[in-house]
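Report of the visiting student (M.T.), summer placement. My assignment was to run the structure pipeline on a short list of targets and document each run. The first record concerns Protein phosphatase 1 regulatory subunit 21.
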Amino acid sequence: MASAELQGKYQKLAQEYSKLRAQNQVLKKGVVDEQANSAALKEQLKMKDQSLRKLQQEMDSLTFRNLQLAKRVELLQDELALSEPRGKKNKKSGESSSQLSQEQKSVFDEDLQKKIEENERLHIQFFEADEQHKHVEAELRSRLATLEMETAQHQAVVDGLTRKYMETIEKLQNDKAKLEVKSQTLEKEAKECRLRTEECQLQLKNLHEDLSSRLEESLSIISEKVPFNDTKYSRYNALNVPVHNRRHQLKMRDIAGQALAFVQDLVKGLLNFHTYTEQRIQIFPVDSAIDTISPLNQKFSQYLHENASYVRPLEEGMLHLFESITEDTVTVLETTVKLKTFSEHLTSYICFLRKILPYQLKSLEEECEASLCTSALRARNLELSQDMKKMTAVFEKLQTYIGLLALPSTEPDGLLRTNYSSVLTNVGAALHGFHDVMKDISKHYSQKATIEHELPTATQKLITTNDCILSSVVALTNGAGKIASFFSNNVDYFIASLSYGPKTASGFISPLSAECMLQYKKKAAAYMKALRKVQQSLEKISKLEQEKEHWMLEAQLAKIKLEKENQRTADKLKSTSSGQAVGVAQEGTAVVTAAGQEDTSAKAVLEPVHSTSLAPDVDSREDLIRNHYMARIVELTSQLQLADSKSVHFYAECRALSRRLALAEKSKEALAEEMKVASQNISRLQDELTTTKRSYEDQLSMMSDHLCSMNETLSKQREEIDTLKMSSKGNSKKNKSR
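After the run finished, the structure tokens were exported:
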């Protein structure tokens, strides 16, 4: 029980550990994905930073260019202001230079117009870059919020796993403490068992010496007193009635009952499979309610309709076999006559399978030739064809071996006893083969039904029928697996029980001798009942004899008392006076009369006692002494028999105790090994837990550092964006003022 509990606990721990490892893999994958995403975000930030630097450089160059233009405009305005007063003084010279100034002004106007256009273009580029930067900033903010949320979720998962690991460690430590306590208890019990074993060995040695002496005495008595040996000829010895083994018969009946239940499940599954197959033929590939089905399927349906007359006898044959195994019989292959009937019913069913197999294969070919049959459905039909052939072959193989097992009950030389074990082993192999074939049929038919349900012409009737066939195939698969496991678990007992038969002989020679043995067994049982009745009668007679002797002694004592009383009365009569003598005499006469009447009644009731009571005192004393010693001898004989039975019981108990001690030693060693393995598993789990915990902590620290760096980068970008905005606003204001 302790080993089973430990195995169950460690299986649960292994399952939890596998789940945690799977979760760990998922978390590792998530962390790797987040690292990849963070790297991609870093690259994006780097690219944006580079673009911002380029824009900043362009902005600086534009600002410098604007300052140069502003200075040039101021210089031009100053020159224009200086040229106006000079024009007043020198009108003549102004007229000559007006043309030159006009040309310069036009050049300056063109240059200024170009600069204005370039400034507008730069403003548009800056506005677009600002909008793009805002969009990127919004995306990065949403991505940052998502990453923070995922980080919180991962942190919650890691906290839950850490808590679960701590609970598992605590539970394992508690289990370890319990196992240590249990180990100490087992050690104490082992010490006690050793002490008891030593005592039992001493007692066993004494008993062995006693039994050896008694065996030698018994052998000498047998050699001197037994006149003949009736076990010389094996063919006559086979007629001897074996010792009745009630436990063996009850176990065989229990096994037969389990086999009957499994056969009933198989019969039910086979009936459903054949019946639903018949219904399927009526609706696919052609529905008989709409159109006429092919002659092949009509014949196949007709044969399938007869399946009950071949399948039901299997259950009936197994039921008759179960009823033939009773507590009073001897169950070996030579006496199981009903196994031949079951074999005949199985042969009849195999003939039915052979008859329907060609029609079944042709029906599947007809389905493959239909217009709506796909390549996948055609492949499933071919696989089912092969499975049906295998199923028929497995049933034929199983019937062959069951027929061989039925031969010893009908034909003496049909099967040698040396081949019984190999035939039983082959029966188990055939049952496992039947289970494998049914698993293949279940798998292929499930795939076939799935493909047919996807067809456009699939009706609800076809879907329901396919589901029914699939359920019957699953039931047959489960039944075949159960009966195969059942036979494998009991095949060793079947092989060992074949030697159950007459002692000091090779077994039952022929079914006729087995039948004679069963008749002798019934006669022996009747004879034992008669002996028991005789024994009861003898015990009753001895009890009545003892009561008779008791009442004889009581009568003798009463007679002696009466004689003494009469003598005393006569003495009183002689010693009394004459006047009183008359009354006393009358009184004595009455007493004597009453005593005479008592004696007469005692004679009437105890006539045989009266005849023995008249014997002399010497004879009665010798009888009493003889009876006393006979009773004492009987008592000592019964005590000796009781002591013999107690010694045999004590010897059996000593053997059982020694076996229990050996089993206890083995279980102790197994538990020690299990504890060692458990401690190793606990240490391994603790190491893996610490390793996983450290890896999670490292990953969390890396993620936190990464998030901190991302936050710093984003803050720097926000500052740069704010400075760019301020500078762009200042430039725009200057341009507007200009």
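The two ends are 98 Å apart (CA to CA). The first helix runs from residue 2 to 89. I thank the supervising group for their guidance throughout the placement.
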